Amino acid sequence: MAGKIDARIAELGIEMPGASAPRIAKIEGWALHNDMLLISGAVPKLQGEPQFIGKVGREFDLAEGQAAARLSALNMIEQARLALDGDLDRIERILKLNGFVNAMPDFTQIPDVVNGASEVFLDIWGDAGRHARTAVGVAVMPFDVAIEVEGTFIVRT
Question: Global pTM?
């Protein structure tokens, strides 16, 4: 039986991208310690394949950057699902989100791009989805994707 978070995801009509292991980096997609779940940097992947290849402000406009951020956040949720044995209801709070946007030097709407990820957590978890955040522009990303996000969640033990 699906939990309330899975029901909320379905109610919102969100299609999940499917979980995938890191392709090259010698890391885990997540680390769980007591009530703290850290999600490794998640890029916009669909069924394990990178999407949104290129820079925001060149290949992608703001709306497309936000879509890339949204997909990256959904990949974070997929990693959380793996870490929590499928039980997303264990997530009590999204604590922190860091967003790294592969952007042209003159593109200054970095926080607006990362809003695409933040809004996913707010839509799904409501007030528990409110979080601290860092949003920075970078010169290059793995696979040349438009964005990478990582975060810290508080979970029920």
Answer: 0.95
For the chain, percent of residues with pLDDT exceeding 90: 91
Q: What is the mean pLDDT of the chain?
A: 95
Q: Range with the lowest mean pLDDT among 22-26, 58-62, 113-117?
A: 22-26
Q: Under a CB-based contact definition with an 8 Å cutoff, are residues 100 and 136 in contact?
A: yes
Pick the CATH number of 4-155 from 1.20.1640.10, 3.30.1330.40, 3.50.50.60, 3.30.460.80: 3.30.1330.40
Show the 3-state SS of the chain: CCCHHHHHHHHCCCCCCCCCCCCCCCCCCEEEECCEEEEEEECCEECCEECCECCECCCECHHHHHHHHHHHHHHHHHHHHHHCCCCHHHEEEEEEEEEEEEECCCCCCHHHHHHHHHHHHHHHHHHHHCCEEEEEEECCCHHHECEEEEEEEEECC
